[in-house]
Design brief:
Elements (H helix, E strand, L loop, with lengths): L4 E3 L11 H9 L2 E2 L7 E2 L6 E6 H6 L5 H5 L5 E4 L6 E4 L7 E5 L2 E2 L25 E8 L3 H4 L6 E7 L9 E11 L7 E13 L3 E12 L10 E12 L9 E11 L4
Parallel strand pairs: 7-10
Antiparallel strand pairs: 1-11, 2-3, 4-9, 5-6, 7-8, 9-10, 11-12, 12-13, 13-14, 14-15
Keywords: Cell outer membrane, Membrane, Receptor, Signal, TonB box, Transmembrane, Transmembrane beta strand, Transport
GO molecular function, one term: siderophore uptake transmembrane transporter activity
Pfam families: Plug
Length: 257
């Protein structure tokens, strides 16, 4: 059953018809997921879609799974931390998730290898993402049998090498038209800057989301999710990454009346 909803987001969209320039820009897009090294998208030996930082900023996406709904061949089912993502009709356990080329999911994260996993909860907040690369089709030769359906690689923004801290904060709300359905609230934040000028920088991300409980039989339970990360590294990449921490807390329960 589809529950209609109204998003508390106002957006103005301006569309220009410049197909030749748009095609040229797409051909110049650089990807890394298909081979493990940088190459232009037209040279990649796979069918790839890229969700750019600009597209993420222009649209009212709530999270990565929300953005993936616009990619041809990708099907998102479920919601919250139990979303399943399948590519080209393959079962969702054959969709491999990467963050900066490092895997965050395996079929072992799913009970009995066929139920909803929690890997989506480990994906970074949208504010910290540079682009999302989606390979549609088998990539088991490079990534193993977990990638028989395809690969989703989330590329995050690099630690800023400027002398000042920069960041962004985004919040949105979904108010259900049917008031027996729970509303959804979400905030995500990103900040990056120097700790020791020219030597050490930091990148901090955070996300909080809350979905209220439905007041209908067999509806959604209340769910709260907190997701954060900290990366310390040399801005000039003279040193390797020093430390990277990531945490997630998901709470889902029935409210007793």
């Amino acid at each position: 059953m589809t529950i209609p909803h109204v998003k508390a987001v106002a957006a103005a969209v301006c569309v220009a018809s410049l197909p030749s320039l748009g095609h040229a820009a797409e051909q110049d897009t650089v990807v890394v997921t298909a081979t493990g090294f940088e190459q232009k998208i037209q040279d990649a030996p796979a069918s790839i879609s890229v969700i750019t930082k600009q597209q993420i900023e222009d649209k009212a996406y709530r999270d990565v799974t929300d953005a993936l709904k616009d990619v041809p061949g990708v099907v998102v089912t479920g919601g919250g931390s139990s979303s399943d993502i399948s590519i080209r009709g393959m079962a969702s356990q054959y969709t491999l998730f990467l963050v900066n080329g490092k895997r965050i999911s395996t079929r072992g994260t799913r009970p009995n290898s066929d139920n909803s996993g929690i890997e989506q909860g480990w994906l970074p907040p949208l504010e910290s993402i540079e682009r999302i690369e989606v390979i549609r089709g088998p990539m088991s030769s490079l990534y193993g049998s977990d990638a028989m359906g395809g690969v989703i690689n989330v590329i995050t923004k690099k630690v800023s090498n400027t002398k000042a801290w920069t960041g962004s904060l985004h919040g949105d709300a979904t108010f259900q038209e049917d008031r027996d359905s729970g509303d959804i609230y979400q905030t995500n934040a990103y900040a990056s800057g120097p700790l020791i000028d020219g030597l050490l920088g930091a990148k901090v991300t955070g996300l909080f989301s809350h979905r209220a409980e439905d007041k209908i039989l067999n509806g959604y339970n209340e769910q709260r999710m907190r997701n954060g990360g900290l990366t310390l590294m040399n801005p000039l990449m003279i040193l390797v990454k020093i430390i990277k921490l990531r945490w997630i807390h998901i709470l889902s329960y029935d409210q007793m009346v």
